[in-house]
Amino acid sequence: RLWREATTVFMMSGPGGCEPFGLAVAGYESGLAAEIFVSFHGALFLQSVRSEDKRRVMELAQVDFRRRAELYGIPVNYRPF
């Protein structure tokens, strides 16, 4: 359920994908403690999406996940891996 609620990456074949903010928010909303570790400040995983419409949907979902993570006070650590 967590993965499904956190999915933001569209795939025409195979499962979609999720990013760290969505996964943390889904976990938090399920009663789990969450902390985010990420190495990039912008929207994630958009470089491989060819459709402008799909990119826009993914960006909107990521903006919403980031807003909710901030609202919930989920700690975010930006650092290189």
List the helices and strands and how they pair.
Layout: H1 2-6, E1 7-9, E2 17-18, H2 20-29, E3 36-38, H3 52-72, E4 76-78
Parallel strand pairs: 3-4
Antiparallel strand pairs: 1-2
Q: Number of DSSP strands?
A: 4
Number of helices: 3
- If strands are numbered along the chain, what order do they take across the biggest sheet? 1-2
Task: State which percent range the strand residues make up.
Answer: 5-15%
Report low-confidence residues grouped into runs of 5 or more. none
Helix content: 40-55%
Short structural summary:
The chain is an alpha+beta fold.
Model description:
The protein has 81 residues and is an alpha+beta fold. It has one domain (2-78). The chain contains 3 helices and 4 strands; from the N terminus they run αββαβαβ. The protein has helices at 2-6, 20-29, 52-72, and strands spanning 7-9, 17-18, 36-38, 76-78. The strands form 2 sheets. Strands 1-2 form a two-stranded antiparallel sheet. A hairpin with a 7-residue loop joins strand 1 and strand 2 (17-18). Helix 2 packs across helix 3. The chain is globular.
Describe the structure using short key phrases:
81 residues; alpha+beta; two-stranded antiparallel ribbon; two-stranded parallel ribbon; globular
